[in-house]
Amino acid sequence: MSGKPLPTALKIFKNTARKDQLNEFEPAPARDQIQPPDNLSDGALKNWGLVVEQLKSAGIMTNLDNQALGLYCEAYSRWCEANSKIAEHGMVIKAPSGYPVQSPYLSISNKAFEQMRAMLSEFGMTPSSRSRIKAEPKEIVNEFDQF
Question: Is residue 109 a contact partner of residue 55, using CB atoms and an 8 Å limit?
């Protein structure tokens, strides 16, 4: 088996679940307390508000995912801040010696980018990770069916 194991819900969502490989005792976290972590920066909190609603509507977010999404939001905030500094000062700056050197913001931006990319895949937020998911169409409930 290559890669890390997928949660049962994701296997069902991807339509790759096999009865002989399902964990019938896998925890099923609640979805009623989806709140941002207390220690998010302002930039991360702003991004949280944009992303969490989309993940909730896709049925992906649970109470246990708050910290993981917080990590993504912090990395995104850091990436945005570093990129604005790169735009302001350039990718190459002058060292105290007078020689040109790579801006320290470039490595901050690159590291945050890698962190974001890893978390995007965890939540199925890239075209590639979504292409492996087969979502069942949502059932339309007709209130008159009961009559």
Answer: no
Could you tell me how far CA 77 lies from the centroid of its own chain? 13
pLDDT, block means (10 residues), the chain with 147 residues: 59 69 69 89 94 86 91 97 97 95 97 95 80 57 61
Q: DSSP E strands: which ranges in the chain?
A: 92-94, 100-102
- Residue 49 near residue 35, CB atoms below 8 Å: no
- Residue type at 96 in one-letter notation: P
Are 80 and 66 in contact, with CB atoms under 8 Å apart? no
Structure tokens at 50: 């944009």
Q: How far apart are CA 74 and CA 53, in angstroms?
A: 17
Look at residues 100, 103, 108 and name the one whose alpha carbon lies nearest to residue 88.
Answer: 103
Predicted TM-score (pTM) of the model is 0.72
Q: How far apart are CA 35 and CA 53, in angstroms?
A: 11
CA angle (102 as vertex; 97, 105 as ends), nearest 5: 115
